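Hi there,

I know you've been waiting on this one. I reran it after we fixed the sequence typo, so this is the corrected version. Both the input and the resulting structure follow.
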Amino acid sequence: MRAYKSGARSDESMKGVAATMDDATIKNLAAYYAKQQPLPTKARAPLSVTEWVQRCDRCHGANGNSTDPHMPAVAGQRADYHAKVLHAYRTGERKSTAMSAMSSALTDADVEALAAYYARQKPRSVIFVPVPTK
C-alpha cells in the first residue's frame, strides 16, 4: 500500500471500496456528486506589506518602535540582519513560538519587503523606568 504525505487515501483502499459497489450504486453516486454546487474556495490573496506591518506592529510597536521592555524594537534594524533573523524563525533555527507562527506564512519576498520597510523606519529612543513593586 502506498502512503501519501497529503493524507489522501491510497489507490488500493479506494479500489477496495469501489469493488464492493454495484453499477447502480456507482451511477447514483455519480449523479449525486454531479448535482452538487461547487463551494467557494477559502483561499485569500497573500497579505500585502502594509498588512504584514500591521501584524508586526501589534507586538513590536508602531513602525517597529516597541515601548515594551520585553519586546524588541525593529525600527532601523539593518535589512540584511532582519531578513536573516526572519528566515531563521521560519526554518526553526531560531526559537520563538510566537515568531515561528507569524513568520511561517511569510514568503521570501515578504521577508525581504518587511526587512526593507523596517530598515527605513526611524528608531526612537526609549527609556524604561522600573517601577518599584509595592
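Quick highlight: Residues 23 and 29 are 10 Å apart (CA to CA).

Best,
R. S.
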